[in-house]
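Students often ask why we bother encoding 3D structure as a string. The short answer is that it lets us treat folding as translation between two languages. Here is a chain of 64 residues written in the first language.
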Amino acid sequence: MVWLAVFLAVLGAFFLAIGAQRQGSAVKADTGGLALSSNGFLRLLRNPRWMLGLLFLCLGMVMN
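And here it is in the second language, the structure alphabet:
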């Protein structure tokens, strides 16, 4: 049972890292930097890369 917990923790950390990277790169590509306005946030909701990052972050949180 311990091996399952360790496996899920490592997999969860992987998903958290990849999700944060995907979202960060989408923000940088859509806004030209790290500044984000309310209009820019609405654009991110339509960005598949940002949504994939959000999905990975949610999966990582569930696994942890």
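Translate back mentally: The mean pLDDT is 88. Keep this in mind for the problem set.
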